[in-house]
Specification:
Strand content: 5-15%
Distance between the termini: 50 Å
Order of helices and strands: HEEHH
Structural class: alpha+beta
Number of helices: 3
Helix content: 25-40%
Number of domains: 1
Radius of gyration: 21 Å
Shape: elongated
Length: about 70
């Protein structure tokens, strides 16, 4: 992959980005998309507690007993 060393003025602008963001020139032409790297401490979970709780509260899904029955385990 090619890479570019980012100058300080641009680095200051993009450091706070948390999601992919279009980079445009002064005329509005899209130069590309900057996708920030998510840096996590070793052992830190990929999902936040809030994300896990939201997923657990979503409607639908199957109970463990239903999954076992479908797999022929019990």
């Amino acid at each position: 992959m090619n890479h570019v060393i980012v100058s300080d003025p641009l680095n200051v602008n993009i450091t706070g980005f948390a999601q992919p963001t279009e980079l445009r020139d002064q005329s509005g032409y899209v130069l590309g998309v900057f996708t920030p790297v998510i840096r996590r401490a070793p052992g830190e979970p990929e999902d936040t507690l809030e994300e896990l709780e939201a997923a657990a509260n979503e409607p639908g899904g199957y109970t463990l007993e239903e999954i076992w029955r479908e797999l022929g385990v019990k």
